[in-house]
Amino acid sequence: MQAAAALAALVMALLLPEIAGQGLVFLAGLLWINMVFGFSWNLMFRQTGLVSFGHAAFFAIGGYGYAVLARAWPGLPPLLVFVAAGALGAVAALVVGVVALRRSLGVYFAIFSLALSQIVAMVISDLPSLGRDDGFAGIRRPVLDLGVATIKLAEGDNYYRFLVLSCALLTLIVWWVTHSRTGRRFRAVQQDAERAAFLGIAVARQRLLCFVIAAAVAAVAGALYGPWLQLLTPELAQWTFSARPILFTLLGGAASFWGPAVGALGFTVLEYATRTLHGVGEITVGGILLIVVLIFPGGIIGGIIGGVRGALGRARPVAGA
């Protein structure tokens, strides 16, 4: 059922430009990127219990990495540049993780990751080659040369459809990791690290591997973000942007794989509905989100599942009578 629903959502997303205006299509593209960003954060949190307050650092590294590579070497195949952006995020996570995960966990790791994101934002702001506070502008949408055909992603809705398919592929990768043997080792570490170590699982190595995979996925999401907006700013690495995947996950439900997607959708709908409330839009969105989280501690999906189970439980005595 989940696979059918996901396939239906993918088809609807690909057909959206045929029935919606450019404004909604633009928001849909951001939604897909936000969902993947949320999936990458929840991969760490749900699978190994790692909490990062600086996940946006890898999003920004991927975005700026793609922009710099595409401008410096315009002849490189675009798909290779996207992969290279993900590799940059993975390498950065590997370097940070080797130091951080051996010495700190829990709140200490969260603060360490927060400091990392602020450092990345400061570096971006100080480098003229990255546009400083004015941002890195003029990021072109590439041309895909598939050998048998050439697709200009700058024309029409081509880049939107490329973005949707790319995000679907990233989601599939995260799904596969979550449900693979590697994912089961991650969960064993999250549930009881001491028992996992007793069973022969290298706990520190599994945490590091999960951290690197999550960073690589976030970096590719950042690389897709650049050509979509055609502008990157240092705010992408700030703690405020790092709060987004956390919010998506908690709003949708951290216990479910699809929680970040539901949370990102709910957040996008709220932002769009309150876009004309100048000065009070952020307060309204924050208040509604606070109420939802208080009513549904397990997120929207957790609340729906709990409601369905409660309804079925109340219906059983009636059916038996």
Write up this protein.
- The chain is built from 13 helices and 4 strands.
- It is mainly alpha-helical.
- The longest helix is centred in the N-terminal third of the chain and has 27 residues, at 22-48.
- The chain has one domain (2-237).
- Helix 2 runs antiparallel to helix 9, helix 3 packs across helix 9 and helix 6 (158-179) packs across helix 7.
- Helix content is 75%, strand content 3%.
Descriptive key words:
13 helices, 321 residues, mainly alpha
Strand order of the largest sheet: 1-4
Fraction in beta strands: under 5%
The oligomerization state is single chain
Number of strands: 4
Helix percent reads over 70%
Mean pLDDT across the residues is 89
What are the segments in which pLDDT stays under 50 over at least 5 consecutive residues? none
Question: What's the topology here?
Answer:
Blueprint: H1 2-19, H2 22-48, H3 56-72, H4 78-103, H5 107-126, E1 136-137, E2 143-145, E3 150-152, H6 158-179, H7 181-191, H8 193-198, H9 203-229, E4 231-232, H10 239-252, H11 259-273, H12 281-295, H13 299-320
Antiparallel strand pairs: 1-4, 2-3
Summarize the structure.
Helix content is 75%, strand content 3%.
